[in-house]
């Protein structure tokens, strides 16, 4: 069963409740989901939802993967599949496919995204895609042991970085959570 627009609206409203200062960011997403086609479909423009996984180790290192096409490092993530039943499940599935994460070795940080960001994607005429916006829903996952959660086969295309190396507001949130976690006895 696909993630419905109502499901996305529920997640967005939960995120706004937890992060009221970010309401303006999600206003357009909610309106589009209320009035448009499937907001998780890759073909939906002017915007659609994508998911990412922020996987952190006990020492608060963050997992990144190398994009084979662009040779850039980023959090594992991508487009929501038609058979994904939740955004949380989509993020976990993308982490498994893109980084080789053993899904039974991670613990979700919650059912609401840790961060949401709107990223403008340039037009890709060769793919027939106009410029559009990705609403990146980033879910936080904890692992107990890096070596057990990500097998050696994926080691050449993953790395573990300090939360402060993650760009933007997400990096700030991860750094803040890292400091808070280290203060807890």
Automatic annotation (TrEMBL):
State the name under which the record lists this protein.
NUDIX family protein
Instruction: Please give the organism.
Output: Frankia canadensis
List the lineage, top down: Bacteria, Bacillati, Actinomycetota, Actinomycetes, Frankiales
């Amino acid at each position: 069963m696909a993630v419905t627009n109502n499901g996305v609206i529920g997640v967005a409203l939960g995120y706004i409740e937890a992060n009221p200062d970010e309401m303006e960011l999600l206003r357009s997403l909610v309106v589009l989901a209320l009035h448009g086609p499937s907001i998780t479909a890759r073909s939906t423009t002017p915007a659609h939802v994508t998911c990412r996984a922020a996987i952190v180790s006990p020492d608060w290192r963050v997992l990144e993967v190398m994009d084979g096409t662009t040779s850039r490092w980023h959090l594992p993530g991508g487009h929501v599949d038609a058979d994904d039943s939740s955004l949380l499940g989509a993020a976990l599935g993308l982490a498994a496919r893109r980084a080789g994460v053993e899904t039974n070795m991670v613990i979700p940080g919650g059912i609401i995204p840790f961060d949401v960001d709107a990223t403008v994607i340039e037009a890709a005429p060769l793919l027939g895609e106009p410029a559009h916006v990705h609403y990146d829903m980033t879910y936080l996952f904890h692992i107990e042991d890096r070596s057990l959660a990500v097998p050696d086969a994926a080691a050449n295309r993953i790395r573990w970085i300090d939360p402060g190396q993650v760009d933007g507001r997400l990096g700030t949130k991860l750094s803040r959570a890292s400091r808070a976690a280290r203060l807890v006895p």
